[in-house]
Design a protein that fits this description.
The complex is a heterodimer.
Chain A: E1 14-24, E2 27-30, H1 31-35, H2 42-49, E3 53-56, H3 63-78, E4 85-91, H4 102-109, E5 117-120, H5 126-140, E6 145-153, E7 171-181, E8 190-193, E9 201-203, H6 207-211, E10 220-222, H7 224-246, E11 255-258, H8 263-272, E12 280-281, H9 285-288, H10 295-306, E13 314-321, E14 325-332
Parallel strand pairs in A: 4-5, 4-6, 11-12, 11-13
Antiparallel strand pairs in A: 1-7, 2-3, 6-7, 8-14, 9-10, 13-14
Helix pairs in contact in A: 7-8
Chain B: H1 5-20, H2 41-55, H3 61-64, H4 70-79
Classes of the chains: A alpha/beta, B mainly alpha.
Chain lengths: ~325, ~80
């Protein structure tokens, strides 16, 4: 007896980013505002991080509020109907519920219910992980359009007296719509993780420790030197590999959009890549701070809105952070 | 073959100068990277990575915190 033949997804050849949306914290927090508890100064923070202000959200502005705002902008600019969204991917480490996911609520709030929806926990690499998955979902035919959000309200998980990372951090959300394309719009992704450095960036304690009274409310911490070495010299290798698998050279790029971790990581990484002067290096960190999974779409949105880069140009985007996790790809700017 | 202490000091001074602008003659064995030369942790790591390249040695992250003075770094590299 002949076996019945299964249907499978019909693949489409290419995918691209249609549009990007952005939302930031409503408060502008200066270096003077955060310097006191870490016995520091505006000058010290500027020199070591490049940050002049960071944007944080007030108590009444939630992670979900920012994610909805950014998503609605991306959907509107993409010119699609939210009901056409076939998957919602939300990269975040600051959704304050273990379950259910932030993505399911976001999908409902933006009119994408009943799209499949799930969160991605890859910290500062989360947005690039999301774009990688969206590219695969669209090209495989599993979804026509995918909404990828990188969003964080990091200010809920900081310790004002921590000198390792808290003073860098800001709040915001960036969103991208990925869909089918006639031309290649997203290169293969170079991504991975190195759990041998699991402790290099992360939380000061577990929720179990907090429940049992053996630790304070968990907040973010990092081993700055270990992270810096990895973020510059290991990520330079990843960035070069991403260019190679994309089949382009640094000369072909319009922009380098790295995770906005620290201006010195950004500048040193750009130096290692020997970029021509024509390549715009995103430095959104200066006024936004480090927003983890949100930082790449926020930085790209800034470059597009200011006109520093144009639609159709190529951008190398690279995210790296807790895990340690990393992801990089070359994309056509929407 | 072990590296020569004076050569390592001179090479390290060049690396420090390139990263921070500090004059090479100020980079002496008894100087503390943080207290005397005012080098912060990120610049220190850049210096370490450049020293690894220049001298063909490996300086693990956990060793960096033990390199208090220029002399500590020179000795580590010479003996690596």
């Amino acid at each position: 007896m002949a076996h019945p033949q299964l249907n499978q997804y019909q693949a489409v050849k290419f995918a691209r980013i249609y549009a990007i949306g952005a939302a930031r914290g409503d408060l502008t927090v200066t270096n003077d505002d955060v310097a006191g508890p870490i016995d520091s100064s505006d000058e010290w923070i500027r020199q070591r991080t490049g940050i002049i202000t960071r944007r944080r959200a007030s108590a009444s502005r939630s992670l979900m509020d920012m994610a909805v705002e950014a998503s609605q902008e991306a959907i509107k600019k993409a010119g699609i109907d939210p009901s056409e969204i076939g998957a919602v991917l939300f990269s975040t480490i600051t959704h304050p519920h273990q379950t259910p996911s932030a993505a399911a609520l976001l999908a409902d709030k933006i009119g994408a219910n009943p799209a499949p929806a799930y969160d991605i926990s890859a910290a500062c690499a989360g947005y690039c992980y999301g774009i990688a998955q969206a590219d695969a979902l669209v090209r495989s035919g599993m979804a026509k359009y995918v909404l990828v959000v990188g969003g964080e309200k990091l200010s809920d998980f900081i310790d004002p007296t921590d000198r390792t990372i808290s003073f860098l951090l800001g709040d915001g959300a960036g969103a991208a719509i990925v869909g089918p394309s006639d031309e290649p719009g997203i290169s293969p992704t170079v991504w991975g993780s190195d759990g041998s450095h699991w402790d290099a960036v992360g939380m000061s304690a577990s929720l179990i420790d907090f429940r049992d009274g053996t630790a304070n409310w968990p907040t973010l911490r990092q081993e700055g030197q270990t992270v810096f070495r990895w973020a510059v010299w290991e990520m330079a290798k990843v960035a070069k590999q991403a260019l190679e698998v994309a089949g382009v050279s640094a000369d072909d790029l319009s922009a380098l959009v790295t995770h906005q971790a620290n201006i010195r990581i950004i500048d040193e990484l750009a130096k290692q890549l020997k970029l021509p002067e024509s390549v715009v290096v995103a430095r959104d960190i200066v006024y936004t701070g480090n927003t983890s999974a949100a930082s790449i779409p926020l930085a790209m949105h800034s470059l597009l809105e200011s006109g520093e880069v144009k639609s159709g140009g190529l951008a190398l985007q690279i995210g790296f952070g807790a895990g340690l996790a990393f992801g990089a790809q070359v994309v056509v700017l929407p | 073959m072990a590296l020569d202490q004076n050569e390592v000091l001179a090479g390290l001074a060049e690396i420090v100068n390139e990263e921070t602008g500090i004059a090479t003659e100020k980079v002496q064995l008894d100087k503390s990277f943080t207290d005397d030369l005012d080098i912060d942790s990120i610049s220190m790591m850049t210096i370490v990575v450049n020293a690894e390249d220049k001298f063909g040695v490996k300086i693990p992250d956990e060793e960096v915190k033990n390199l208090i003075t220029v002399g500590d770094a020179v000795n580590f590299i010479v003996n690596a």
